[in-house]
Write a structure and sequence with these properties.
57 helices, 13% strand, alpha+beta
Length: 1901
C-alpha cells in the first residue's frame, strides 16, 4: 500500500518581490507541514508550477493542468500535478510596481496573478490528480458547503495498493466518487494514450530515430507549446524502452530558470516550452524533437546508430500495419471493410507490442550469457557481452554493441538477471515465443495477430476491470471560473488538516500489516543462441575438406610424421583464416592435451605454436569468447624440455596478441571459471546430502548454473544460520583461489621471455604497462628472441623490476575489480596484493632459466642469400640483410582473384648498392619455393620511407620498413630476428645519405666506376658570382660550337669563328682566380636577381672590363668543335627548321625573318636559357635585355619552332610580371608627359610582337584587327572548367575554296558521322571565320557559334588567368591574350602522391571493395584530369598554328607546364619529333636546354629534399603515351621507349637529366663531354648513348607498326574517357625486377638459355605457363617479328655466319615488301603489318582501341568540314591531294565496307515537291547497287538504286531549291527505267568522279 498523495501545496505569486525584473512564486501553504520520514518534501516546486516564469496578466487566463516530474537524490521520481488558475491582484499592491507619475485609475481587477494547487505523489495517476484538483477548485469557485480542510485531509490519508490489479473506490468528503485501478504488474509501465499520440505527432521514422538515440545515450530535447504534451511525449519514450529503464536525467518539463541544465555533458531526456526554442539553437550535440511541427533535428556532428537490418525493416512494416491498416489494401479493387485503426488506448498498446517484440529479438538468449559468480548471500551476476555478440554473429552491429554498453542495459542485467524472482510479460516472451516470432516473420497477418495478443495483455495490465463504475466528479458551474470578481483562495486551517492526518495515522498503526504474497519462481532461460557460421559465407573456409586437412596435420605432428606435417602446414595456415577451422584446431589440441601428449619435441612444439599464433592472429572480436578462451588452457599445457629441470611452455611463444592485454577478456574468463566452480560446489553438496547417484548425474547434466542458483535462492530462507555461513565462506574461497590462479595465468602471458629487455606493446591495452612488451615467438629451431630491439621508439633498456612492477600493477587492477564485485573480504584482498609480486618474481626467475636454455638451441637452417648481379661500376654499400618481402595491395603476387600460387611473402635479403635497393629471395610458400623473386628500384627514386607495424603472424621478425619509389615500386619488408635494430638504423641512414647527397657530385651518375671524391665545404657566397676559368673554357667551347654550326649554313665558317672568338676574348678579359670546387648556387640567388643587375655578371659590351674573366685555356680545334655542334639539340633543330642567322653585321641576311642571338652567350640575361636563342631579325640584343625584365626569371619570348606550311611560329616564355602586363595591355593609350621606363619597355615588347607578326607572310601585309574574342569566357566556363572537355576551334562550313588535302588526324575510330567526318582539307583556320560553327567537336570541345570572333589574330599569347586579369586588348594590335587557368606544381605533386597510392597500394584490400576503391581513388587523384588539361591546351595551340596564327606560351615560370605544352605541340605538329632521333632532339632542346628544373623537381640533392618529388617530365611522357596509344603508327619508337625514359630520368644512372639548366651543366663541366672520356665501354654518361647502343643490338625500342604520313598533324582526343592508365604505373616483373637496366635482365636470360641447352636429352614440353606479375611476358612470349629476328640470328650463329644486325634485316624485308607491292600494282605501305586497302578516312581517324564499352561520353563528330566530299578508292586519286597510307588493322573493317567501291556525301532531290536532302551514298560494285544512308555511321540503309535499271548518267543544270553556293557543274542526273534522280556534289570535280565511277560500274556489268 502507498499514499495516493504525499503533499498538497498552495503556491502563489510573490507580491513582495514584484520590483525585480522577473516575478517569483512562493509556497503559501503546504500539508502536512512536516516531512514524511519515508519521503522528504521535494524542493523547487514553485519553479515547476510556472515553467515559463511567474508574471502578472492583464486578463484572466483559463485554468490549466499538467504533471511535472521531479527526481530526487535517490533517483526516485515525484509526480507534481499542477492546477493553475488566475486570481485578481489588489490595486494597492499593483500600484507598487507602477511608476509614481502614472496617476491613471487602475480597476480592481486590472491585473491577475497565477496561483497553483499542487499534488506531490510517487504514483502516476494523472486522471485521478486532475479530478481531485478540479474538485478542490470547484468547491472554492462555486462556494460549495464543503470544508476544504476535510477534503485535503482525506486526500493526504488515502492509501491504495501499488500493483496487483486491485480496484478501489475513493471519496474525499465532497460527495465525489472515483475508481482507481492499479496495474497488475508494476514492472510494466503505464502509458495511457501517450505512445499513439507521439507517433501521431512525429511519425514512424522520427520516433524510431529518437528511440535509438535514447538507447545509445544521446541527448534528446522535446519542444512544444503544451506542457502536458511534453510530459506525455517523455512518458511515451519511457514506455517504448521497456524492459529497459532510462537512468539518466529525465525532466519532462524544464523551467526557464534552469535552462542551463541543457549544457550538461551527460545524456538526458528533457522537455522545454517552444517559446525558448531560440535559446536552444546553440546546442550542437542535442537532438531536438518539435512535437508541434512533427520534426526531429539531428546535428551533423552526431551519428545515431540505427537498428540493423532486417530488424529495422520488420519494425517499420509492423508499425505501418498497426498505424495504417488500410495501406495494405489501398490498391485492392474491392477493399475489405474491416480494416480500421484501433481505438487510441488499444492502438497505444499495439505500438508498444511491436517494440516489445523488437526487444525480444534483440535480446534473445541473453540469459545464456549471464555469469553468476556468487549465489549467497545475494546473487552477483555479470553479462558476457563478447559471447553474446560472437555467438549471434553481430559483432559489427553498432546499435546493439552500444546498447549493451549502456547504463540502461546494465540496470536491466542487475534487475532481471536474478534467477529467482517474479516474472512478467517480457520474460514469458523471451522464454516461450521466440520460435513463433522467427517463424511468423514473413507472414504479416500472423505478425499482426501476435501483436494484438500482446496488446491485449498490456491493455489488461493497465485496465484490469474494463467495466468501471462511473466516476462522480464535481466541476465548476458554467462560467463561474471565469468571473472577474472572485474572492482569493481561502487560507486553510493547518490544525484541522493535521488532526485528520494524525487520526488516520493512528488507525494505520493499529491495523494488522498487509502481507503481500510474492509470486517468485525460477526465471526461464529460453532457447539457447544458435551458433552462427562465418558471416562472409565462404563455403571454402568451412568446408569439410579444409577441416580434414587441419585434423590430418595435427595427427601427423603428434605421430611425429614431420615431413607430412610440413607439407600440409601452408594449407593449414590458410585454412585457419576460417572460423570453423580455428574451432576445429582448438578441439583437436584439447583432445591431445587430455591424452597426456602435451610434452613435445622441438619440431612438434614449433608447429603447434605456429598454428596457435595463426589462430589467434586471424581471430576477430567475433571469436574472442571462444577461440582465445579455448586456447588459454592449452598454452599452459603444451611444453618442451630444454634441459635438466627446464621446461618451456607454449605461453612464452604466443604472447604477441592484443587479446592478452584486454582486461574485459580476463574478466569474462575469470567469471566463467568461477561460475563453473560454484556450480560444481552445489552439485557436490547435493551428492553429499545422500541423494541417489543417478539423480546427481541427471542434475549435473541437465541444470545450468542459473537454475542451480534459482533453487538455492528458494531454499536459502530454510537453511540454518551455520549452513548459510558455511556456503558463503565456500563461495568466497572459490573466488579467492581463482584470483590466485588467474594472477599466475596473467603473469605467464604478460611477462616477456627475456625480461631484461623491454619492448613497446603493440597496443595500449595494459594501460600503464607502457614499457613492457609481450615477447615475439621463439620457436624450437629458431632459437630465442632476437638480441636487438628497436631503440627508435624511445624506450631504453630497463631493469626486470620495472617489468615486474608494470605487470603487478596490471594484475592488481584486475584483482581489485573482480574481487570487489565478487564480494571478497578486505583481508583476503590484502593477502592477494601481498602474493601477486611474489608470483610475478617467481615466474621471472623461471623465465630466466628458460631464456638461457632456449638460446642454446641450434639455430634454424635458413636459406642462403641470393646475391643480385650488379651493373658495371655499381658497388655494394651494405651486404644483404635477411628480410621478408610482404605482400602489398597488388593481388597478383599473392594468388588472389587472378589465381596462381602466392609468390609473396618471400624470404630473402635486401641489398643496398650505390645505385639501387634490391630484394632477392624465394617465396615462403613451398609450392613455389624454387622461383626467384626480385624487386628493386633506383635509390634516387625513393620518395618515402617509414616504419610499419607487422602482422602478428610474422613472429620470426621484429620490425618492418616500407620503401616507396616513384618508379611505382614498393618494398614492404620485415627484418628477420637476426638483424639487429642497429643494423636497421645503419641501413636507413645509408639510404638517406645516398638518396639525398649533399652535392650533385654524390649522385651515382658521377660516382659510378670511380672512388668517391671528398666533397669540399661550400665556399662563401661572392657578391657578384661569376664563372671560373675552366667553366668559361667549357662554356666557350660549346658556344663556339653552336656558332660554327650556323656559320656552316651561311658558308662563312672561318670569318664567324674568328669574330666570335675575338669578341669573346675581348669580353672575357684577362685574369681569374684559381679553380675551385663547384657548388650549386641556391635557386634564390639564381632566380631572384634584379632586372638592372643583368649586366653585372659578364659584360656584353665591346670594351674589356677591369673585373672581367680571362680565358685560361686555348680553344679546341675547329674540327672537334664542329663535331660537338652536331650534338647540340638547339643548333641541330634550328638548322633543320631553317631558322635565323648569326647576329653579326657582316653576315646577316636581311631576307630571313629570324636570327640566332648570342645575347645570352654568357648566361647574363637568363641563366635558365641556352646560350643561343632565336629572335626576330629586327630585334636588337639591347632590346631583348629590356624585354627580359618584364618576365619571370628573365625568361623572355623566344622562337622554338616554325610551321613549315603556314610559317607561323611557336614561342615560349615565362609568365609576365604584373608591371609587364600593365604596360603591355592595361595602359596602352594613356597619355603621359614623360615616358616612363615601363612605357618604354612595353613599346619594346610591342616591337617584338610586331616583328613576330611581320615574320609571317600571311599576316605581314594584313591591316585591321584580328581577334580571338569570346575565348576567355569559354576557357573559364566550359573549356577548362570541365575535366572531360577539350579546347578546339570549330567550324561548321568552310568559306575558303581551293584548299589542299586534309591535314591532321583525330585519335579515335568511334566518333563522327559519315557526312561530316573526313572531307578534303577543311582549312581549320576557316573555323575562326565561321558564324554557325555549332557542331560538337570530336574531342569534346565547345561548339558555341560565338566561340571565336570572325577574324583571327596574328599572334595569340597564352598566359595565366590570374596575371592577365583585367587586361584590355587594344583593337589596333594584331595579337590577343588567351588567359587560362592551369594547375601548379603543388597540385601535380599531390596528384602524383595519390596516383602512387592508387597504383601501388600498401595494404591488401578486400576483393569486394578493391575495384570500387581503385576507381574512386583514381578519380580523387585528378591525374587524368591534369593530363586532359595539358592535351587540351596543346590541341588548341596546334589548331592555331595550323591556321596560320603564331602562339606564345607563357605560363608560370616557363619551365614546367609551358615546357609540356610546347613539346607536345611540336610532337603533334611535326612528324620529325615522332622519330627516335627527333624525340631525343625535342627533349634536349625543350627540356634540357631551356632549363626544366630536373634537379629541383626530382629532389636530387639534400638542398632540394624539402621540395619533394614533382613529376612534370613524367606527366609529359604520359601525355606522349596517350597520343601513342591513339596513333600507334605515327611513332618510330615503342611504348617501351617511353617507359625506359620514365624510369631513367629519375634513376640517376645517367647524367642526362641532372641539374637545372645548361648554365649549371657548364659550371659542372658536363656540358660537352667527349665520348672518349668514358672509363669503360659499359659505363654510359648519357641515356642517349645507352639507347643508341641498345637499339643497335635489339629492336626493343622500335615500333613495328611505324608507317608515317609526312606532314600529318595529330589531334588526339583528351576526354577522360579516352585516356588510359599507363601500364608503366601498374605492371611489374617479380622474376627479374625492372627490365630497364638491360644488362642485368639480359645477362640472366643468357644464363638461363645456357642452362637449358646443357641437357637436351630430356623431353622438352612446349607448354608455357606465364604467371601474372611474375613473368616478363614480352620475353617469355615475344611478338612474332621479334621471335623471327631472334631465330634468324640464332640460325646464323649455328651456321657460323656473322650475325647481322636486326635493323638491316628489317629494312631489307621492308624493301622486298615494297618491291612486291609495286609489281602487283598495289599501294605501297611503309609498314609490313598493315593492309594496304584501308581507306584514307580511316587513316585520318587514327586508331583507338577501345577496351571497354564505356568509351567516350560524347557522340564525337569529326566535323572538319560539314560539306565533306566522297572519298575515292586508292586507285582513283583525290583532288590532286597526296594519298595517305593505311592506319587500321583490317579487322576493324565491317563486312559492308569491303564492298564499298566509292562513297561520299551527295545532295539528293526528293520526289515531286520535296526538298533536297544530304545523304551518304555508297557505290557497291560487288552488289551492283547505289545505296544511301542518313549519315556515314548509319547501319540502316534508307534506299537502294539498282544499277541494272540505270539507263544513263549525265551532267545537269541546277533545279529549283538546289543547295546554294555550289558550282553549277556539280549537278548530275541519273535516269533509271522507273524515275529520274537529281544529285548534287560539293563541286564539279567530285561530280565528275561520281559520274565516272557509276559509268565504270555500268560498263563492267
Amino acid at each position: 500500500m502507498a499514499r495516493l498523495v504525499d503533499y498538497f501545496v498552495l503556491v502563489g505569486y510573490d507580491l513582495e518581490k514584484t520590483g525585480s525584473s522577473d516575478g517569483q512564486g512562493r509556497i503559501l501553504q503546504r500539508f502536512p507541514e512536516k516531512d514524511w520520514e519515508d519521503n522528504p518534501f521535494p524542493q523547487g516546486i514553485e519553479l515547476f508550477c510556472q515553467p515559463s516564469g511567474w508574471q502578472l496578466f492583464t486578463d484572466k487566463k483559463p485554468a490549466t493542468f499538467f504533471v511535472a516530474v521531479l527526481t530526487d537524490i535517490n533517483s526516485e521520481r515525484h509526480y507534481c500535478a499542477c492546477f493553475t488558475f488566475s486570481e485578481a491582484v489588489e490595486s494597492t499592491q499593483s500600484l507598487k510596481s507602477g511608476d509614481d507619475d502614472d496617476m491613471g485609475i487602475i480597476q480592481p481587477a486590472a491585473l491577475f496573478a497565477p496561483k497553483s494547487l499542487v499534488l506531490v505523489s510517487r504514483l502516476d495517476h494523472t486522471e485521478v490528480f486532475r479530478n481531485t484538483l478540479g474538485l478542490i477548485y470547484t468547491i472554492y469557485v462555486d462556494g460549495m458547503n464543503v470544508s476544504l480542510e476535510t477534503v485535503v485531509g482525506n486526500l493526504l490519508t488515502c492509501f491504495i495498493p501499488i500493483a496487483g490489479g486491485a480496484q478501489r473506490t475513493v471519496t474525499f468528503g465532497a460527495g465525489d466518487r472515483q475508481v482507481i485501478q492499479t496495474p497488475i504488474t508494476d514492472s510494466i509501465p503505464v502509458s495511457g494514450c501517450s505512445v499513439s499520440l507521439l507517433f501521431k505527432q512525429l511519425g514512424i521514422n522520427n520516433v524510431l530515430c529518437l528511440f535509438c538515440a535514447a538507447l545509445t545515450e544521446h541527448k534528446i530535447l522535446f519542444l512544444s507549446s503544451s506542457y502536458q504534451r511534453l510530459t506525455d511525449a517523455c512518458r511515451a519514450l519511457m514506455a517504448l524502452m521497456f524492459p529497459l529503464k532510462y537512468s539518466f536525467t529525465y525532466i519532462p518539463i524544464l523551467p526557464a530558470n534552469l535552462l542551463e541544465v541543457l549544457c550538461t555533458p551527460t545524456p538526458f531526456i528533457i522537455g522545454v516550452h517552444s517559446i525558448f526554442q531560440s535559446e536552444t539553437e546553440d546546442l550542437l550535440d542535442v537532438i531536438k524533437a518539435d512535437l508541434d511541427g512533427g520534426e526531429v533535428t539531428v546535428p551533423e556532428c552526431l551519428h545515431i546508430p540505427l537498428l540493423s537490418e532486417p530488424l529495422l525493416h520488420h519494425t517499420k512494416s509492423a508499425l505501418s500495419m498497426v498505424l495504417d491498416p488500410e495501406l495494405e489494401v489501398a490498391d485492392l479493387a474491392f477493399p475489405p471493410t474491416t480494416a480500421s485503426v484501433s481505438a487510441a488506448k488499444m492502438l497505444d498498446k499495439e505500438i508498444r507490442s511491436v517494440f516489445l517484440r523488437l526487444f525480444a529479438q534483440l535480446l534473445q538468449g541473453y540469459r545464456c550469457c549471464l555469469h553468476i559468480i556468487r549465489i549467497n548471500p545475494e546473487p552477483v551476476i555479470r553479462f558476457h557481452k563478447a559471447a553474446f555478440l560472437g555467438q549471434r554473429g553481430v559483432v559489427e552491429d553498432d546499435f546493439l554493441t552500444k546498447l549493451l554498453d549502456g547504463m540502461a542495459f546494465a540496470g536491466f542485467v542487475t534487475e532481471r538477471g536474478t534467477p529467482y524472482r517474479a516474472i512478467d510479460l517480457f520474460d514469458e516472451l523471451i522464454a516461450d515465443k521466440m520460435d513463433q516470432i522467427r517463424l511468423e516473420e514473413g507472414t504479416p497477418q500472423k505478425v499482426l495477430k501476435h501483436i494484438r495478443e500482446l496488446a491485449e495483455q498490456l491493455f489488461k495490465n493497465e485496465n484490469p476491470y474494463p467495466a468501471v463504475t462511473m466516476h462522480k466528479v464535481h466541476q465548476p458551474t458554467n462560467g463561474s471560473h471565469m468571473q472577474l470578481h472572485q474572492k482569493p483562495f481561502p487560507h486553510l486551517d493547518e490544525g484541522v488538516v493535521q488532526w485528520i492526518i494524525d487520526q488516520a495515522t493512528a488507525k494505520l498503526q493499529n491495523a494488522p500489516p498487509a502481507v503481500k504474497a510474492e509470486k517468485k519462481c525460477m526465471v526461464p532461460s529460453g532457447p539457447a543462441i544458435v551458433g552462427v557460421v562465418d558471416r562472409n559465407g565462404s563455403a571454402l573456409a568451412n568446408s569439410a575438406r579444409r577441416l580434414e586437412v587441419v585434423r590430418n596435420c595435427i595427427s601427423y605432428i603428434f605421430e611425429n610424421k614431420m615431413l607430412e606435417a610440413k607439407k600440409l602446414m601452408p594449407a593449414v595456415l590458410r585454412a585457419l583464416k576460417g572460423r570453423a577451422a580455428r574451432q576445429c584446431l582448438t578441439q583437436e589440441l584439447n583432445l591431445h592435451a587430455q591424452q597426456n601428449r602435451a610434452v613435445l619435441d622441438h619440431q612438434q612444439f614449433d608447429f603447434v605454436v605456429r598454428m596457435m599464433n595463426c589462430t589467434l592472429q586471424d581471430s576477430s572480436a567475433l571469436d574472442e569468447h571462444s577461440i582465445a578462451a579455448a586456447i588459454l588452457p592449452l598454452v599452459t599445457a603444451f611444453c618442451r624440455k630444454l634441459g635438466s629441470g627446464v621446461t618451456q611452455f607454449a605461453y612464452s611463444c604466443v604472447q604477441e596478441h592484443v587479446i592478452w592485454t584486454t582486461m574485459s577478456f580476463w574478466e569474462s574468463m575469470f567469471y566463467n571459471d568461477v561460475q563453473n566452480h560454484v556450480r560444481a560446489l552445489y552439485l557436490e553438496n547435493k551428492d553429499s546430502d545422500g541423494s541417489e547417484q543417478e539423480s546427481c548425474d541427471d542434475l549435473e547434466k541437465g541444470k545450468s548454473a542459473l537454475e542451480i542458483a534459482s533453487e538455492q535462492r528458494r531454499l536459502w530462507p530454510t537453511l540454518s544460520k551455520e549452513k548459510q555461513t558455511e556456503l558463503i565462506q565456500k563461495e568466497e574461497s572459490i573466488v579467492f583461489s581463482q584470483a590466485i590462479h588467474y594472477a599466475n595465468r596473467m603473469s605467464y602471458l604478460l611477462l616477456p621471455l627475456d625480461t631484461s629487455k623491454n619492448r613497446l606493446l603493440r597496443t595500449a591495452g595494459l594501460g600503464d604497462l607502457e614499457s613492457v612488451s609481450n615477447s615475439f615467438v621463439t620457436n624450437s629451431i629458431a632459437g630465442s628472441v632476437a638480441e636487438s630491439y628497436d631503440t627508435e621508439s624511445g624506450f631504453e633498456d630497463a631493469e626486470s623490476s620495472d617489468v615486474a612492477n608494470s605487470v603487478v600493477r596490471f594484475i592488481n587492477r584486475f584483482v581489485d575489480k573482480v574481487c570487489t564485485e565478487s564480494g571478497v573480504t578486505n583481508e583476503h584482498l590484502k593477502s592477494l596484493h601481498i602474493m601477486i609480486p611474489d608470483i610475478v618474481q617467481m615466474h621471472i626467475e623461471t623465465l630466466d632459466a628458460v631464456h638461457r636454455e632456449s638460446r642454446r638451441l641450434p639455430p634454424i637452417q635458413k636459406p642462403k642469400f641470393l646475391r643480385p648481379s650488379l651493373l658495371m661500376g655499381e658497388e655494394f654499400v651494405m651486404d644483404g640483410l635477411r628480410v621478408y618481402l610482404l605482400p602489398d595491395g597488388r593481388e597478383e603476387a599473392t594468388g588472389g582473384v587472378l589465381g596462381g600460387p602466392p609468390i609473396l611473402p618471400a624470404e630473402g635479403a635486401v641489398f643496398l648498392t650505390t645505385y639501387r635497393i634490391v630484394f632477392k629471395g624465394m617465396p615462403s610458400d613451398p609450392l613455389v619455393g624454387e622461383q626467384v623473386v626480385t624487386r628493386s628500384f633506383p635509390i634516387g627514386s625513393l620518395t618515402k620511407e617509414k616504419k610499419i607495424s607487422l602482422p602478428v603472424s610474422m613472429h620470426f621478425v621484429q620490425e618492418g620498413l616500407q620503401l616507396r619509389s616513384c618508379t611505382f615500386q614498393l618494398l614492404k619488408i620485415a627484418f628477420d630476428e637476426e638483424v639487429g635494430s642497429d643494423q636497421v638504423e645503419v641501413f636507413r641512414k645509408h639510404i638517406h645519405k645516398l638518396r639525398y647527397p649533399q652535392y650533385v657530385h654524390g649522385i651515382f651518375a658521377f660516382t659510378v666506376g670511380q672512388i668517391q671524391k671528398q666533397v669540399l665545404e661550400p665556399r662563401q657566397k661572392e657578391k657578384n658570382p661569376s664563372l671560373n676559368s675552366w667553366q668559361v673554357n667549357d662554356m666557350l667551347h660549346g658556344l663556339t660550337a653552336g656558332v660554327l654550326s650556323l656559320s656552316a649554313i651561311s658558308h662563312s665558317t672561318t670569318t664567324l669563328s674568328k669574330n666570335l672568338v675575338k669578341n669573346a676574348k675581348k669580353t672575357i678579359g684577362r685574369q681569374y682566380v684559381t679553380r675551385k670546387k663547384y657548388t650549386p648556387p641556391s635557386w634564390d640567388t639564381r632566380s631572384n636577381q634584379q632586372a638592372h643587375d643583368n649586366e653585372d655578371e659578364i659584360s656584353v659590351s665591346e670594351e674589356p672590363e677591369q673585373n672581367a674573366l680571362t680565358l685560361s685555356t686555348t680553344m679546341k680545334s675547329a674540327d672537334k668543335t664542329l663535331s660537338h655542334v652536331v650534338e647540340r639539340a638547339c643548333c641541330r633543330d634550328y638548322q633543320r627548321l631553317g631558322l635565323g642567322t648569326l647576329s653579326n653585321s657582316l653576315t646577316r641576311s636581311k631576307n630571313e625573318p629570324f636570327r640566332i642571338s648570342t645575347v645570352n652567350r654568357m648566361y647574363a640575361v637568363c641563366k635558365s636559357y641556352p646560350g643561343l636563342l632565336i629572335v626576330p631579325q629586327t630585334i636588337q640584343d639591347n632590346t631583348i635585355q629590356k624585354i627580359s625584365r618584364c618576365y619571370r626569371q628573365n625568361r623572355f619570348p623566344v622562337v622554338c619552332w616554325r610551321n613549315s606550311r603556314t610559317k607561323a611560329v611557336l614561342l615560349r616564355s615565362a609568365g609576365l610580371h604584373g608591371k609587364g602586363v600593365a604596360g603591355l595591355f592595361k595602359a596602352q593609350n594613356a597619355p603621359s608627359a614623360v615616358q616612363s621606363q615601363t612605357d618604354s619597355t612595353s613599346l619594346e615588347q610591342e616591337k617584338f610582337f610586331q616583328a613576330i607578326v611581320n615574320s609571317m607572310p600571311h599576316h605581314s601585309d594584313i591591316s585591321g584587327r584580328n581577334t580571338l574574342g569570346g575565348f576567355t569566357a569559354h576557357m573559364t566556363s566550359t573549356v577548362l572548367g570541365h575535366r572531360d572537355r577539350v579546347i578546339t576551334l570549330s567550324s561548321h562550313k568552310s568559306s575558303v575554296k581551293g584548299q589542299g588535302s586534309p591535314r591532321g588526324k583525330w585519335g579515335s575510330i568511334r566518333g563522327g558521322s559519315r557526312m561530316s567526318m573526313f572531307g578534303p582539307n577543311p582549312d581549320i583556320g576557316s573555323r575562326l571565320a565561321s558564324k554557325d560553327g555549332t557542331l560538337p567537336q570530336p574531342n569534346g570541345g565547345p561548339s558555341d557559334a560565338h566561340f571565336l570572333r570572325q577574324q583571327r589574330a596574328a599572334l595569340y599569347i597564352i598566359g595565366d588567368k590570374s596575371l592577365l586579369k583585367g587586361a584590355k586588348p587594344d583593337l589596333l594590335q594584331q595579337w590577343e591574350l588567351i588567359p587560362i587557368e592551369v594547375f601548379d606544381v603543388r597540385q601535380v605533386k599531390t596528384s602524383f602522391r595519390k596516383l602512387m597510392k592508387v597504383c601501388v597500394p600498401s595494404n591488401v584490400q578486400s576483393e569486394s571493395s578493391a575495384s570500387t576503391a581503385y576507381y574512386r581513388t583514381l578519380e580523387e587523384s585528378e591525374w587524368l584530369s591534369q593530363l586532359h588539361k595539358i592535351l587540351q591546351i596543346s590541341v588548341l595551340v596546334v589548331e592555331l598554328l595550323d591556321n596560320g596564327s603564331s602562339v606564345l606560351v607563357g605560363l608560370e615560370d616557363g619551365w614546367d607546364i609551358s615546357t609540356q605544352v610546347v613539346s607536345l605541340v611540336q610532337l603533334l605538329s611535326d612528324n620529325h619529333y615522332r622519330t627516335m632521333e627527333g624525340f631525343r632532339l625535342l627533349i634536349e632542346k625543350e627540356w634540357l636546354s631551356f632549363g626544366h628544373r630536373f634537379s629541383h623537381r626530382s629532389a636530387q640533392t639534400l638542398a632540394n629534399q624539402s621540395s619533394g618529388f614533382t613529376p612534370v617530365f613524367l606527366q609529359f611522357l604520359d601525355c606522349v603515351h596517350q597520343i601513342h596509344h591513339q596513333f600507334p603508327m605515327e611513332f618510330e619508337f615503342s611504348q617501351y621507349y617511353l617507359k625506359f625514359l620514365a624510369y631513367h630520368y629519375i634513376s640517376n644512372r645517367f647524367r642526362t637529366f641532372l641539374l637545372d639548366s645548361d648554365y649549371e651543366r657548364i659550371e659542372l663541366g658536363i656540358m660537352y663531354e667527349e665520348k672518349g672520356e668514358r672509363k669503360s665501354q659499359h659505363i654510359f654518361k648519357t641515356v642517349w648513348d645507352y639507347i643508341e647502343r641498345l637499339h643497335k643490338r635489339t629492336p626493343v625500342f622500335y615500333n613495328y607498326m611505324y608507317a608515317p604520313d609526312d606532314g600529318e598533324v595529330l589531334r588526339p582526343y583528351s576526354n577522360i574517357s579516352n585516356l588510359k592508365i599507363w601500364d608503366y604505373y601498374t605492371s611489374e616483373v617479380l622474376s627479374e625486377g625492372p627490365s630497364y637496366d638491360w644488362e642485368l635482365v639480359n645477362g640472366r636470360c643468357e644464363q638461363a638459355e645456357d642452362s637449358d641447352k646443357q641437357d637436351t636429352s630430356a623431353p622438352q614440353s612446349k607448354r608455357k605457363i606465364i604467371w601474372p606479375c611474375y613473368d616478363n611476358r614480352s620475353k617469355v612470349e615475344p611478338d612474332a617479328i621479334t621471335k623471327l629476328l631472334e631465330e634468324l640470328q640464332a640460325l646464323e650463329s649455328e651456321l657460323g655466319q656473322t650475325t647481322e644486325r636486326w635493323k638491316d634485316i628489317w629494312d631489307r624485308a621492308r624493301a622486298a615488301h615494297r618491291a612486291e607491292s609495286k609489281q602487283d600494282g598495289k599501294h605501297v605501305s611503309s609498314s609490313l603489318l598493315i593492309s594496304s586497302n584501308v581507306h584514307h578516312h580511316r587513316r585520318s581517324a587514327g586508331m583507338y582501341l577501345q577496351e571497354s564499352g564505356l568509351g567516350s561520353t560524347l557522340n564525337l563528330n569529326l566535323s572538319l568540314d560539314s560539306d565533306s566530299s566522297g572519298v575515292s578508292t586508292p586507285s582513283s586519286g583525290m583532288m590532286g591531294g597526296r594519298r595517305s597510307t593505311s592506319t587500321l588493322y583490317t579487322q576493324f573493317q565491317t563486312s559492308e565496307s569491303e564492298n564499298r567501291s566509292f562513297e561520299g556525301i551527295l545532295y539528293k532531290k526528293g520526289a515531286f515537291m520535296k526538298p533536297w536532302k544530304q545523304r551518304w551514298f555508297v557505290l557497291d560494285k560487288t552488289k551492283h547497287q547505289l545505296r544511301y544512308y542518313d549519315y556515314r555511321t548509319d547501319t540502316e540503309c534508307k534506299g537502294t538504286i539498282d544499277l541494272a535499271e540505270v539507263e544513263s548518267v549525265t551532267p545537269a543544270a541546277p533545279t529549283m531549291g538546289a543547295p546554294k553556293n555550289v558550282d553549277e557543274k556539280a549537278f548530275f542526273d541519273l535516269k533509271t527505267t522507273k524515275r529520274f534522280y537529281n544529285f548534287c556534289a560539293k563541286d564539279s570535280v567530285l561530280a565528275q568522279q561520281w559520274i565516272d565511277s557509276i559509268q565504270s560500274c555500268l560498263s563492267d556489268a
